[in-house]
Design a protein that fits this description.
GO terms for molecular function: kinase activity; protein serine/threonine kinase inhibitor activity. This protein is mainly α. It contains eight helices and three strands, in the order H-H-H-H-H-E-E-E-H-H-H. The protein folds into two domains: 84 residues, protein kinase ck2 holoenzyme, chain C, domain 1; 111 residues, N-terminal domain of TfIIb (Single Sheet), CATH 2.20.25.
Length: 224
């Protein structure tokens, strides 16, 4: 297996921390900086050993305990892929923690995830969401809490991000924690319409969205 040009030989990040390099790479703007203490806490990694190949080496790479120059170019590419997957799965857990929610709130306020294209939403900020919890089952979508619609990212780089790296519960958790960001709902419920999806997927996604809306209402009602 030959590493694509995007990865190079691994020397691209040899002079800086892996996480800093990863966050600075084009296409990774949706991710926040997962704190080192969170990554090193084995409790937060429970179950991930079976999800990521070369788990320990990938973890060592993320935490800058691994020298990639000791490996062949092909092996470096494989380890880098594993490190990306591991960071993504850890990221999905981190953004549900108090510190992670705070970091994602700032990105939301800065509209780092884009703005809703619907006219009546007045450029309302979007939030990343995964329809599936398991990696490899679907890519990240963008959720507007005002019209409650899902959108595909505009950039191809973003549209290839695995949705499992954000999870299905993140938007609800963010709004439950920071209730002041919940927008006023329109008097008439917008007819579900999933922009950018194939027709046969719309019914399934509409049911998924209705389920998540009900779950969110239950969570928010408990805080009243």
């Amino acid at each position: 297996m030959t590493a694509p040009e995007e990865y190079g030989s691994g020397s691209d990040y040899s002079e800086e921390y892996w996480v800093d390099w990863f966050l600075g790479a084009k296409g990774n703007e949706y991710f926040c900086d997962v704190e080192q203490d969170f990554i090193l806490d084995r409790f937060n990694l429970t179950g991930l050993q079976s999800e990521v190949e070369h788990f320990q080496l990938a973890l060592d790479l993320i935490t800058d305990e691994l020298d990639l120059e000791e490996f062949s170019e092909d092996h470096r590419y494989v380890l880098d892929e594993s490190a990306r997957k591991l960071y993504g799965l850890i990221h999905a857990r981190f953004i549900l923690s108090p510190r992670g929610l705070q970091k994602m709130l700032e990105k939301y306020k800065n509209s780092d995830f884009g703005r809703c294209p619907r006219l009546h939403c007045n450029l309302h900020p979007l939030l990343p969401i995964g329809i599936y919890e398991k990696q490899g089952q679907g890519t990240v979508k963008l959720y507007c809490s005002k019209c409650e619609e899902l959108y595909n990212p505009k950039s191809i780089r973003h549209s290839n991000i695995d949705g499992a790296y954000f999870g299905a519960n993140f938007p609800a958790m963010l709004m439950q924690t920071f209730a002041n960001i919940i927008p006023a709902k329109p008097k008439e419920i917008y007819v579900p319409k999933i922009f950018g999806f194939k027709i046969h997927e719309q019914a399934k996604l509409a049911r998924w969205k209705e389920k998540k809306r009900s779950e969110m209402e239950v969570r928010l009602s408990k805080d009243d």
